[in-house]
């Protein structure tokens, strides 16, 4: 490099390898060294920005220097224990001129070739042709893909790759596909949850710009769907809830992209509480609706119901995460989700019932969050599968009635952050509001319930149940 100061600054920004095991470190001396280095990053980035200003900006440097700087600085644009808020802001300001509007082709190619590809060379992905980026018809007969993972020692590699994916010109994907896809798939198919989670995030960045035709022509659309579906098998890990919350929207994005929904078959417009769920408009012509339904059914039936709900029942945070994601899937499936009601309704209504034996180890707010999440998903179930609700109305009103009766006895202590000016828990208020909303939605789907089941509840205890179902008839008649 032409400047003696530039290599010194880039060397000072090299992330120590100990950050790869930061959450497992117990040596106080090593931890102190890492913290000191982390606190020095902002100063070094500031010095680098000032140096670039004296040389008329990063874009005026030779391509190799632009690539070296980008590979060093982009490591601070994204998640990581080595990143402070100031460092992230400085990194974005330094790299900004290179991304307006896209990373220059030569710079991008050099980053991928000289900084990323060598790190993953020792672990070729067994399902990819590394020369073309195409899916192989059968897994390659290679050594263990998890042996000697050099790339995990290159801290910040995921952030550099993510920065490239977010700023690449879509027309450039064709020429660098074989350089971009292998590291993305290596992250996504890794056996450790932190790297798998980063892989899901990288796929999300990839899908925002990649041409659909390239995905399909190389067979990567199916490979991505299979790998994303496998993410839900990664249970019993502290990051499982984060994986679920990241994997469901990314999988839905992929489904919307490769098998778009035609306007004529859009599901019914949903109201509260799932009104925030939007159908992603596809960039291509409508595909086979059967393929779309099969993909959605795999996500709902195999991944969420058949995996998370079935095998992670002892992990309340994983169950909450999966339940939180149900409205996104149900809204896209519409009435097609009716085939899964036999599993969904018992799952969601069971969460509303008070436990037969209270668990001293489960925090009260976890139990309440699960109830609120279940009610939100139940609202979406009723909206999207209204023609089938007559089969399930008794199950639903039984659970909701029991939940309403026990709600007044629930005390949520020790959660002062949830207390509003009236002294009531804001989460508890939402819980009661959702119980009433369920009754309104159920009355819209099954009008006969107003004069039958609801009247039975009022005759049983008008003081208790009038607040639950008393407004349902007026609410439905106003519409």
Task: Tag the structure with descriptive keywords.
mainly alpha; 20 helices; 479 residues; 58% helix
SSE arrangement:
Layout: H1 5-12, H2 28-54, H3 63-73, H4 85-95, H5 105-120, H6 157-167, H7 173-188, H8 193-207, H9 212-217, H10 220-230, H11 240-258, H12 289-311, H13 316-333, H14 341-350, H15 364-384, H16 393-407, H17 426-445, H18 453-460, H19 462-469, H20 472-477
Helix pairs in contact: 1-2, 2-4, 3-5, 5-7, 6-8, 7-8, 8-11, 10-11, 11-12, 11-13, 12-13, 13-15, 14-15, 14-16, 15-17, 16-17, 18-19
Description:
The chain is mainly α. The chain has helices at residues 5-12, 28-54, 63-73, 85-95, 105-120, 157-167, 173-188, 193-207, 212-217, 220-230, 240-258, 289-311, 316-333, 341-350, 364-384, 393-407, 426-445, 453-460, 462-469, 472-477. The chain is elongated, with a radius of gyration of 26 Å. The model is unreliable at 264-285 and 411-424 (pLDDT under 50).
